[in-house]
Amino acid sequence: xxxxxxxxxxNNEEKTDLTTTLQSDRSLDSGxxxxxxxxxxxxxxxxxxxxxxxYGEQQKANYVYLTATLDxxxxxxxxAVGDEPGRIYRVEPxxxxxDDPNLTDKKFPGNPTRSYRTRQPLRVVGEVLDxxxxxxxxxxxxxxxxxxxxxxxxxxxxx
Length: 159
Hints:
Number of strands: 7
Helix content: 25-40%
Order of helices and strands: HEEEHEEEEH
Oligomer: single chain
CATH superfamily: Rifampin ADP-ribosyltransferase domain
């Protein structure tokens, strides 16, 4: 083989290893998937990494986040930065997804919130209109916990 063929072969092996790892970790989920935000999106819109995060220090997001639970999407909609009302969209990943290390094995055992992230776009395929937010007390408790993490210098994993 020449150098080019060697590189193609190595790349194919890495893709196979990554897919196998994701499948053996049960990171892949059949969905449906949701994304909570305060953005006003339309059917067919693409959510892509590279924009300011809706959370924490609002750094450039290297990933787009999604979840297979409505409750996690509700938290996302309620806690996103902005004055607009929270919204929850049904989304479909365009590429591969991986466990969100902010809510999975890096911080908690397993993936109880079924939360994921991807470097590829998510396509908006619908909006969930009939959802109920958390109580004001629950929301304040979560905000207090996030403020404490910020005070301690703990930011979301974005790498």
